[in-house]
Structures are given as structure tokens and as C-alpha cells.
Amino acid sequence: MQNHILIKTLLNKSYFKVIYITFLAINMIPLINVTNISKILLMTFTVWGGIILLNDIICRKFKLLKDPIIVILVLFLGVCFVSFLINFKMDGISNLISLGFTAICIFVFINDDQNKDNLKQEILWLNRCFCAVVFIALTVSIFWFITNTHIEIISRGDYTINLGFFENRLFGVFSSPNVGGTYSALAIVAALINLFGLKKKVEKIETTFYIVVIILSIIYNALSNSRGTYVCCIAAIVIFFIFKPLQCKFVFLNSKITAIVTCMIAITLTVVCFISIIPFVRYTMSYVPYIVSNETSCESSANSVDLNRIETTRVDLNRIETTREDIDISNKRFDIWVASLKLLKTDYVWGFGGSTITEEQGTQYLADGILTQKDITYLNYADGNTHNGYLHILVKCGPISFVLFIIFLVMCIIKVLKARKIVYSNCIAAFAIAVVTYILINNLFETNILFLGANIFQAIFWAYAGYLLIYCGNSIKEVTE
Questions:
Q1: Is residue 120 part of a domain?
Q2: Which residues span the domain enclosing 225?
């Protein structure tokens, strides 16, 4: 009996998703990621996810394959697998491991066997755990800003990671302000889902916790000064209100024209509030380190804060590229994209197999005219991070895989549009669209969807994509209302 319960628990996808995403949220923090326990736990989750996947194949005959969208994903992963084998010399083992993590996220996270109540319970705990991790991370990060702390650590890849407050931007406990910004933005959505989307009674203490998480997230986003995060947030806001019209009891709002006008007003007001709050919070917080420092130094005396000196001692939060001619508005991304795209010349069918080059390859490609010295410089600077998820797929696995992934996205968009009436009436589906939209737009500036191993944003993307497919009728078993 006990063995039966243990096996049932082990094969429960909800348990795996909540625990795995919580682990990934913690593990992506560099101070944790560099530890040996991280590797051990990662291997444990790999085995656990593999067991669930194997059980689906053997016992359930992989019913997900009846869905054309999933078939496209299988073909996509198959082409990527072949590409990695053909380009095995380009970190083949690492690429195959990353592909394995991606497969686990896709086929374990996209459920096809849950009713509405189970689904809501899973989302509730997933968001609770994620918000708890982000709450601690943001608290430490903002404290480091107040104390003007800057730390350097060496990563597993033997390169330096800056933490704390660096180059006029708040990194905090994250590897970059962009990563921290995405953590914060997703935490806001997670908090809003648990407060309003699940339509469940929330205790006062939990409501207070979510409000604090939202406030800390706004403060971090203001201090991180991540333009990519701001663009993604605005896109998510627009998409959310398009797919979730404001509910109103007045009869005259039932007309389509009035609904459109109301939607536009909601979008405009929300976006204006967002772009107004961020600069205000940034400007206000720029005084805090000095005030705290001054209060601490004067605590034992009768002196008070010298308000005349505050303006000259406020923290500079202007991005450094605004004052440097060698860095463009993309923060070197344009040059990285151009250089990465040239790597596709090595194999127009199966791709380059990676996104970094060795010194020998650089010399050879320079002689063959494939790359310039400038290209090599920016590829070495990027160190494998293409800063564009779609370009990353194209260069690494070739145009066939890229086209299959685009087909997958188009098919998903068509399904969502066809099921828009379901989305209109379901808050969770609208929030899921907002999350998916955020990460898809974010991958124009970062690489978070695929082939990055155990990546929290990859996991969240596929989890919420799974929820969206369920509510849009893409699952084998309909969600019971």
C-alpha cells in the first residue's frame, strides 16, 4: 500500500512541476548555482522527470501526440537532436543534456489529464512557491542597493559574475538586471493570479504577502533599469486587456464598440501608470542609500540629515551606455546578432551547433572570410549568449528547426484566437497569455525559451503554455467547468 502511494506521488506531474520550478527559481541565483548540491539536485530532478516521461510513453501511449501542435514540437526536437549529433564536436554532450531538459519541460509540463480544480490547486502552489523565492531574493537585492554592496563571484564556466549594485544598475542576487527584471515581472503576475485569477478566498496574511512581493518587484524593476523588461511588461499588459475585457454590470457595455473603447482606455491608463511609477520609484530610491547611511552615522548624536547635501549625494541610476560612445542603445546586442548570424554560413541546413567559437575556429573563419575581427570580438564578449532566443535556435540548429518552431507558435496563436471566447470568460487563461507573451517578447532580447539546460524561465514558459492549451481546448481531456 505504501509503495503504491509512493509510486503515485512520484508520477504526479503537479508535485514535480511545483517542486522543480521552485528548485529552478532558487538554482538560477548564482550564489546557489555554483554549489555542488545544485548539481546533485539537478541530477535528481532529471531522473524524476525522465521517469514521468517514460511512464507517459509506456502506460498512456503518449496521448499528447494526438495533438498536431505537440507533433510539431516532437518534429522540432527531433531535428534539433539530429543537428546536435551532426555538430557533436560543438559541445555535443552539453547540447544533448540541454535538449533533454527542454523535452522534460515540454512533455511533463503540458498536462492533458487534469480537471479544473486540480489545475487551480497546482497553479496556486506553483505561484506561492515562486513568490516566496522572489520575495527573499528581492529583499536581499534591495538591501544590497541600500548598502551599496558589490560582489564578484566565479561561475561554473570560470567567468566573473557581478552581483549587488554595479554600473548604476541593480543586479542584486541575479546574474544581470534583465534576469532580475524578469523574475520580478513574473512574480507580479503570479501574485495577481493568486489574488484575483483563481477566484478563491485569500487570507489577509497571504494577501499582505502578495502586496509586499508586488511592491518589492516594482522597486527592483525601477532600480534594474532594464528596458527589455519594460517593453515586455507593456506588451503583456496590452495582450492581457485584449483577451480579458473589463467586466461591467452596465448593459450599454455589451456593445462591441464600447467594449473596444473600454479596453483601449484600460490599456492606456495601465501603461501610463506603469511608465510613470517606474521613474518616480527610481528617483525616490536614489536618495535612500544616503539617507540610511547618514542616519546610521548620526544615530548616536543629535545631528539630523543635512537636506542640502542630499541632491549632490543621490545615487546615479543612469545607464552607462547613455554616456559612452562605444555602446549603442542595444547594449552591444546588434553586433552580437550580426556576428552570430554569420555562423550559419558554416552549415545552412543543420546550423552551427553552438553559439561560441574556439580560438582555432576564429582564425579559420577569419581566413575564410566568414567572420571579421569585430565579429570574433563580439562573439567572445557574448560567451555563448546570443541575446535572442529565436536567432539562437536558427544558428544553433539550422533553418529547419527554426521554421518548425515558428509553425508551432503560429498554430498556437490560431488556436488561441479560435478559443478567444473561452479566454474572455476565464481569468487564468488571460493571465497565461500575458505570461507567455512576456517571455516570447523577452526572447527578442534574451535567450530563455530553449536549450539553456535547467532554466526557470524556460520552465515557466512551458508550464503556462500548457495551462493555456488546456483552457483553449487543446488537451485530450477537456477541463471540467
A1: yes
A2: 2-285+317-326+381-471
What is each CA distance from 385 to 81, 259, 273, 333, in whole angstroms?
20, 43, 33, 10
Cell of 370: 566568414
The identity of residue 212, as a single letter, is V
Helix (H) or strand (E) segment spanning residue 415: helix 399-418
Residue at 188: amino acid letter: I
What pTM was computed for the model? 0.89
Per-residue pLDDT tens for 28-49? 898 887 677 877 888 888 889 8
* CA angle (391 as vertex; 387, 397 as ends), nearest 5: 120
Q: What is the pLDDT of residues 169-190, one digit of tens each?
A: 999 999 899 999 999 999 999 9
Report how far residue 421's alpha carbon sits from residue 417's, in angstroms, rounded to the nearest whole number.
9
307 lies in a domain? no
CA distances in angstroms from 311 to 284, 287, 294, listed in the order given: 11, 8, 14
Q: Output the 3-class SS for 135-189.
A: HHHHHHHHHHHHCCCEEEEECCCCCEEEEEEECCEEEECCCCHHHHHHHHHHHHH
251 pLDDT band, cuts 50/70/90, is very low
Tell me the HSE value of 313 on the side-chain side, using a 13 A CA sphere.
14
Q: Report whether 102 contacts 450 (CB < 8 A).
A: yes
